[in-house]
Amino acid sequence: MYYLKANITSPVCFISAGHFTAESRWIHSERIIEDYEIIINLKNPIFIQQEEVQYTLNSGDSLLLLPGLTHKGFDYSDKGASFYWFHFTAGRQVMPCKQEAAIRQDYNLENTDCTWEVIQSGEAENVISLINNNNFLDDFSSYCLLPTLMRSVNLDRVSILFHQLLHLQSSHYYTEQATRYLLTSLLIELAQQNILQFKSKHDSEHSLDKLPKILEWIRIHSMKRISLSDVAHEFNYSKEYLARYFKKHMGMSMQQYIYNLKLSKAKELLCESDKTIGEIAETLGFLDEKYFMKLFKKMEDTTPKQYRNAYNRTHMNTN
């Protein structure tokens, strides 16, 4: 299975969309498209083949089809079969993707540049695992990871966005950006649902992993002066092993993660308390107020005082 790594620093380019319902027994025609297509099945199984791979889509399943590859139906669907479909391309040019070129070569297709990157499932799932483990990572916020086949899509959430998209498509807005941004939101919704599904599956398969316990211990003690050595001692690991294990599963060093927890609390205290900066530094386990200020400036690109002035408390009326 592959994933589409879609850059969303600018909105994707909307091509077309529709809601298909079969009025009789139906089979998908054979064709090659020049853009990406996602099909989200609503009712009755549909049977679609891309090159040599066959997919049976049940209600709530979505399928991503790549440009330049042949897809067609391989069996008939019953009357009443129904699905959403939409076509899209990249909003702007990015680096050509080697993986898609390899896929094209496997199928003896012409090598053409593409605007996004097609990656193998293992690589994508490593990234998704990092996203699930660490809320402080922002390296992956500029793109969506969309799988070839996704089961059990939350149709209620998707349907709201999709019907808004159909409405915009027929409303002739003065700018195409309306459909582009809404379609981008729909792709983000699908990517988020896939992330949550992966987390649920991973949690059940790896219920004995110590990472959740390690993260909870760090969270509880994060306002104290703790280090990698303290955590290694608590969980009976060597420092070297724990450092590698944490970096692999969290995408950053343990010390960086601890600093992120401390600064998250610092921002809360700066906005919601009258503590001085020195008192906040002491509360967070810093012996040196100047080091705390230097670290805050480095990580937030502003000083604690400037942050407090910019995000001062909002007083709410209760009358």
UniProtKB/TrEMBL annotation:
Keyword terms of this UniProt record: DNA-binding, Transcription, Transcription regulation
SUPFAM superfamilies: Homeodomain-like, Regulatory protein AraC
Domain HTH araC/xylS-type: from-to ranges: 212-310
InterPro entries: Homeodomain-like_sf (IPR009057), HTH-like (IPR037923), HTH_AraC (IPR018060), HTH_AraC-typ_CS (IPR018062), Tscrpt_reg_AraC-type_HTH (IPR020449)
Pfam families (alphabetical): HTH_18
GO MF entries: DNA-binding transcription factor activity; sequence-specific DNA binding
Protein name as it appears in the record: HTH araC/xylS-type domain-containing protein
Lineage: Bacteria, Bacillati, Bacillota, Clostridia, Lachnospirales
